[in-house]
Amino acid sequence: MHDEAEDILSVLCGDEEAGVRLDAFAAAHAGISRARAQKLIEDGDITLNGRAAKKNEKLSPGDRVEIAFPETEDAEAEPEDIPLDVVWEDGDIIVVNKPAGMVVHPAPGHASGTLVNALLWHCGDSLSGIGGVNRPGIVHRIDRDTSGLICAAKNDRAHASLAEQLRTHAMHREYRMIVTGNLREEEGTVDAPIGRHPTDRKKMAVIRPGTKNGGHAREAVTHWQTIERYPSSGFTYAGAVLETGRTHQIRVHMAYIGHPLMGDTLYGGGHTPFERHYRSLLDGQMLHAAALVLKHPRTGEEMRFETPLPAGFGEMLAVLRAREDS
User: What domains are defined for the chain?
Assistant: First the structure.
């Protein structure tokens, strides 16, 4: 339930969210980090039933949380004239086909050349400020070496709507991937919580409750479907649909079931003789965000966007198919 003002999001706590902390509730509904939600609470920009509140207050059914987004600060990221493959753009959203190798937003070691830098040049001031000064417009991410569709918000209302669609799984994302080994079944589901790896901070991992870091893991569900098998080379072409959107989710889940993505050296791929021989065709892991389905934040119309496989991905499939036919 949204307030009429463009810069205020008003949400009622439902029965299923009773007992959730205010900062966690606000972060989930606004599509922001918990740290940013806590800062907004401290600054009085997030209220509970019309009053100032503490970040750790627990919510009850019917509680109203209002989030007032302050005017956007000057972005720390600088606009850069980087070409964008724009699939759709209007006054509320922009959908881009991101190439593999492009980082989504500035971070240590990647201060420039990111999607955010390109969006700032392309969109100017027309990006939502909810994500903060380094992530204007960014609602969801895909990994640097993953290609494909990503949607950014051009105003705060659109951002809040898209974040809610992500939270409720109303936004539908379809991927294409090449995995190591033979997926024996035609389809399957990996339902395993994901958290930060207990010893390698660069990685995520399946973390079971009761184990180290178990309390920090979050629900993660990936559905996969076999498309083509290449037994001569030892790989499978498959699709994946995300029910949740955790960091590195597909990569972690496929490695967890013994089928790391081709080229994904972080999670156990990239080491077969075939991958070494065709290294020139590998631009990171073989993972492509091929389709995105969402409801337009202003009209409510369901929209589906698709983008073809990148050249290197298609060439790799051609090699695999040729080896099967030889």
Answer: 8-68 (3.10.290.10), 86-167 (3.30.2350.10), 172-325 (3.30.2350.10)
